[in-house]
Amino acid sequence: DAGVIQSPRHEVTEMGQEVTLRCKPISGHNSLFWYRQTMMRGLELLIYFNNNVPIDDSGMPEDRFSAKMPNASFSTLKIQPSEPRDSAVYFCASSLKGDEQFFGPGTRLTVL
Amino acid sequence: AQSVTQLGSHVSVSEGALVLLRCNYSSSVPPYLFWYVQYPNQGLQLLLKYTSAATLVKGINGFEAEFKKSETSFHLTKPSAHMSDAAEYFCAVHGGTGGFKTIFGAGTRLFVKA
Prior knowledge:
The structure holds 2 protein chains of 2 kinds. Chain A has strands at about 5, 10-15, 20-25, 30-40, 40-50, 55, 65-70, 75-80, 90-95, 100-105, 105-110. Chain A is mostly beta strands. In chain A, strands 2, 4, 5, 6, 9, 10 and 11 form a 7-stranded mixed beta sheet that branches. The termini of chain A are far apart. Chain B is globular and about 40 Å long. Chain B is mostly beta strands. Helices cover about 0% and strands about 55% of the residues of chain B. The interface of A and B includes residues 4, 42, 48, 99 and 105 of A.
C-alpha cells in the first residue's frame, strides 16, 4: 500500500493567493482528517470526514479555509486568500475505524 | 473535556540510557491510548496502542507503554536509547468521554546524546 499521499510536498505562495492542498487516503479507510502543525500551536485538528461527510469542522480557523471530500479517494483543503500566518505544515491522515490514524508526509506551506 | 498532558516538552538522555516519556489523560471512561513518533520532515507514525487488552503494550523499535488506570497514565519507555530514537513523540487518546475525537498531546522532543 502506498500510504496516505499528499501533494504538493512544498508550496510557496504570496499573500492573497489561493492555495489548494490535496490528499489521497489509504484505500478502504472511511475517515479522513486534516491537521495543521506549527511551532507555536503544535498539532491542530482542522476538520474530520467520515464516509466523505464532514463531521466536525470546528477547528477550521475561519472562512478563508474550506475542505471537500468529493469521493472516498480524494480530499482537498483550500485557503483563499492565503495570509502569512497560514504558514505551517498541513497533514492529512486516514483511518479505518476512526481511532488509529495513518498520516501522510505533509505539505509545507510558506505564505510570503 | 477530555485532555492529554505530556510532562516535559524536551527530554534529553544519553545513548544507552533509559527513556521515559510521560503521558497523563483525563477521562472517567478508559479510552484507547496511542503513542506516535514524528521524525524530522515526516508525518506521525504509530509506535503502539492500548485498546483495553493487556495493560503493558509493546511497540516498534523496542518501545513499550503501560496503561495504569488508577494513575490515568500511559508512560512510554525504552530500556536503552539509540541515536536513531531522537524525534518528537506524541501521546493521543481516543474515545472515552471524548467521543469520536482523537486528542493529541503537545508532544515531547527526545534528544539523545552520544
